[in-house]
């Protein structure tokens, strides 16, 4: 069976030649017998219809998509998914790249994707390090998260001591429950230390 998968993540993509209609037409022209469509952001890994489609694919099936970014967020995700499908005997046809199956050409395409994935990771690391180097030269730079305002933490502790719930306190102060718990523990430890002196 030849399955097609079409996805848009935003309404804006409908106008950029990436619409569901355009994808479906190209997939039908490429021989897709059944097309699954979905509107889901590419930043999430959980896409219910796509996940269901992956579960139903069997050895001998082919999955067709118009472009790699229709089913993968990154080259690393794409190459990992393609490898898993190939291991199950499922071929993948990315229309703007070619058929990826268990042949020399298919394996070459997977290796190219893996190389791009490694390149992508290296570029992210390089940009992050470069950004940190630039930030370190600026006055007032400190590594890690900015410190939480002491007055807010003090107010949160006072609310807890006055029998407010953690949820109420978090909503009132804008602090997370875990931050409030740590602040309360620190205050209790400070009070115990004072009593012991």
Helical content stands at: 40-55%
Q: What is the radius of gyration computed over CA atoms, rounded to a whole number of angstroms?
A: 26 Å
Mean pLDDT: 83
Please describe the biggest sheet, giving its number of strands, its sense, and whether it closes into a barrel: 5 strands, mixed
Classification by helices and strands: alpha/beta
- From the spread of the alpha carbons, the general shape counts as elongated
Cα end-to-end separation: 78 Å
H/E element string?
EHEHEHEEHHHH
Helix count equals 7
**Which oligomeric form is depicted?**
single chain
Give the number of DSSP strands: 5
The low-confidence runs, each spanning 5 or more residues with pLDDT under 50, are: none
Percent of residues in beta strands?
Answer: 5-15%
Strand order of the largest sheet: 2-1-3-4-5
């Amino acid at each position: 069976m030849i399955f097609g998968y079409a996805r848009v993540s935003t309404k804006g993509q409908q106008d950029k030649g990436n619409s569901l209609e355009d994808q479906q037409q190209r997939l039908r022209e490429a021989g897709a017998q059944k097309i699954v469509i979905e509107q889901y952001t590419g930043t999430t890994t959980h896409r219910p219809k796509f996940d269901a489609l992956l579960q139903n694919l069997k050895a001998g099936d082919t999955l067709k998509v118009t472009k790699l970014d229709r089913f993968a967020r990154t080259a690393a995700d794409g190459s990992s998914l393609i490898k898993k499908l190939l291991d199950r005997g499922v071929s993948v046809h990315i229309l703007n790249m070619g058929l990826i199956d268990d042949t020399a050409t298919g394996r070459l395409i997977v290796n190219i994707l893996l190389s791009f994935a490694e390149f992508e990771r290296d570029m992210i690391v390089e940009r992050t390090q470069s950004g940190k180097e630039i930030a370190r030269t600026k006055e007032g730079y400190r590594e890690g998260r900015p410190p939480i305002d002491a007055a807010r933490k003090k107010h949160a502790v006072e609310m807890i001591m006055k029998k407010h719930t953690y949820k109420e306190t978090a909503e009132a102060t804008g602090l997370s429950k875990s931050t409030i718990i740590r602040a309360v523990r620190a205050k209790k430890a400070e009070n115990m230390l004072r009593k012991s002196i």
